[in-house]
Amino acid sequence: MSQEPTWFGQPRGLTVLFLTNMWEQFSYFGMRALLVYYMTKQLLIGQAQSSFIYGSYTALAYFTPIVGGVIADRYLGKRKAVIIGASIMALGHFMMAFEALFFFALAAIALGNGLFLPSLPSQVGDLYKRDDPRRGWAFNIYYVGINIGGFLAPLICGTLGEVYGWHYGFGAAGVGMVAGLLIYLAGQKHLPQEQPRQVAANDDVRKGFDRHTILLLLGIGLSVTVFRAAYEQIGNTVALWADSGVDRAAGAFQIPMTWFQSLNPLFVMLLTPPLLAYWRRHAHKETQGSLVRRMALGSLIVGSAYLLLAGVTAASGAALTGWVWLALFFLVLTFGELFILPTGLGLFARLAPPHLGATTVASWFLVIFSGSLTAGLVGTLWSSFEPSSYFLLLAAIAAVAAILLRGISTVADPASK
Fold this sequence. Notes:
Its main location: membrane. The protein is mainly α.
């Protein structure tokens, strides 16, 4: 692999996967930025039911990869799974332009995502030898691609949806999905060769997953499930609060409510380089336990972001809260997110045995499924609480996740068994 031509010091295939993922995330976040507003304002679905549908959809979108990862590893192969999945998702995004097809569209996107989502990031690890030091940083680079798409999506899809009509925003999301598929097809020669699939169905299924590894993955999964119950509110109840409880005036200009969804990915792009530089200098000290402690700190920081919102909404009372506070919230939340989410994905990929990369990564998406479903249930409580009390609840949920992760870190390293 060291003789292979590179771009920016990384295998060229990483750029292909980066761009494919960027446009897929553009389509996902573009649709997500509009979803809860579309249900409450256009379809006239009540807030509690809309929040539950939102949580159920995001949960389903991360449940299907559990089956999709197995199908990719054993039958289709990762490349075919990405191509088929992306095609189905593009169809689903275009179906969102028709009100009568709303639930069918959500189902199509979730089904396509099941094949696409575990198969693409698992190819990132395949670009490197297992002892290649660049392998760990590749997932943080890949995570930036997610957030470039997430940054552009609310600005483009959100603006089209708010100003010109919801269906234009959903159509733009479909165009983004098609762009990602075309990039992936054009970059095939730079992607890693796949191993024969029959090997994955035999002896290697039982290799690598020792008892300690299974318990570690389960513990991290449970903790991140709790964490995401709070984190996922940024596209759900926090988005509703941005519409009804925030003063969005910037001089004579009224900031579109969907634009605030771009702050999270924007801050990811700005904060990732300095954090990566810091972690790279301390890489020689990294262990599984230290990485789990990093995740615990991230959850605590996210909790402090919700604590900030609890304080400012309590101080504002019935008055609207200035939008600067919402921007500060996203800055703090994103800083904490970078400690936990890419680190968790990297840990799951690192612990994957040979030939089971997509299946192991799919188990990470099982965590996102359970967390999203829990977030949908927590979101139904929004109308029953004052904003300050609700945000305080979210801070407490994130703190519980931090405590769980800190406890797991003490037994995460094999030497400490």
